[in-house]
Amino acid sequence: MKLDGDVALGHLTYCTNIHAGETWPEVLSALQRYLPEIKSGFAPQAPMGVGLRLSAAAAEALQKPAARAELHDLLDGAACYVFTINGFPYGAFHGQKVKEGAYRPDWSDPARLHYSNALARLLASLLPDGIDGSVSTVPGTYKPWANGGAIDAIVENLLQHAAELVTLERDTGKTIALALEPEPCCLLETIAETVAFFQQRLYSSQSVARLAKLTGFDSNAAEQALRRHLGVCYDVCHAAVEFENARESIAGLRAAGIPVAKLQLSCALKVANVTPAAVDELRAFDEPVYLHQVVEKPADGRLRRYTDLGEAIANAHTAGGAEWRIHFHVPIFERELKRFATTQEFLREILALHHQAPISEHLEVETYTWDVLPERHRRIGMGAAIARELNWVKDQLC
């Protein structure tokens, strides 16, 4: 949905990675089931944006005209449109162990490049006239896998993808940006690390020269293309978990000329004081599907990171009353979940900054962990909860 206001506030949607489904028929079935209810509760009189999540298998199926026609018919019939795709999870994302597998294949693997190219081609065929597109993706790789050779391959594949986006723009007139999504315990983790990677690697003179060679552009056009087609997906949950300063993190990206191609609206769990009772309550969130990184902030302010909640719980006796922020996406309309707070105040601050000076044209609510939330936090249906999240954002901005 396009948000109206004193300034252009962009397009607001939700990410369909909340729905289980890896094959195209499964994705189609989920969209047919949920889109009418969500649209009725959020945008009954206006076209509604949809943030698609497609596995590699579904993306491959949608290269075929018959499947593509099914998607177009669905969107037209529901009065919906697609302006962004979540290209982060390549394979299965529900009902089985995902954990660090969410980063495989990473950007050192040509399979990630092939998948992202397919998503970009699909998005170009779906974008309404006058709207740019975005595809969010893994932040390079999982940090334990990063080494010099892997990082060189990551940069080369990202430049190859940028060249594909240049070609797509020339052939279709559609501008699409790849949005790398910083996440705890990944190659791009903090905003400072992200800015450094873009400045030193993706926007470097060497990368400009490489893209110029791939596209035939001169150096000025190549640099402009890099900044147009390679940007960031700022996931608010991830930034909050990392104890980022909202204003300073956005200002840092702007100062470096790094576009926020997508602003992902999400909240994390927050434990202000790690006590034995709090740890006991947290065990209900230590589930086997997703990776729930934990960042601990003790009194001295020196952050400590755990790759998963179970590891943090096992070391909770050393926390000594520190604050924990946990990468577990929770409904954004919730300020508290029983004993715990959420990082909703951080999200409110980001939305206030967006209202003052828009951060991105693309806003996407992402609460993909619905199926693994403890049962007591799923008292309303999924469709109603998504509509409530979207309306909550709209109320903050309009």
Structure, explained:
The protein contains 14 helices and 14 strands. The protein has 398 residues and is of the alpha/beta class. It has a single domain, classed as TIM Barrel. Strands 1-14-7-6-5-4-3-2 form an 8-stranded parallel sheet. α5 (148-172) packs across α7 (205-215). The two termini are 12 Å apart.
Set out the fold topology:
Blueprint: E1 11-14, H1 24-42, E2 48-53, H2 56-61, H3 65-78, E3 80-86, H4 110-126, E4 133-137, H5 148-172, E5 176-180, H6 191-202, H7 205-215, H8 219-229, E6 230-235, H9 236-241, H10 246-255, E7 260-265, E8 267-271, H11 276-282, E9 294-297, E10 304-306, H12 309-314, E11 323-330, E12 336-337, E13 340-342, H13 344-356, E14 362-365, H14 382-397
Parallel strand pairs: 1-14, 2-3, 3-4, 4-5, 5-6, 6-7, 7-14
Antiparallel strand pairs: 8-11, 8-13, 9-10, 9-11, 12-13
Helix pairs in contact: 1-3, 1-14, 4-5, 5-7, 7-8
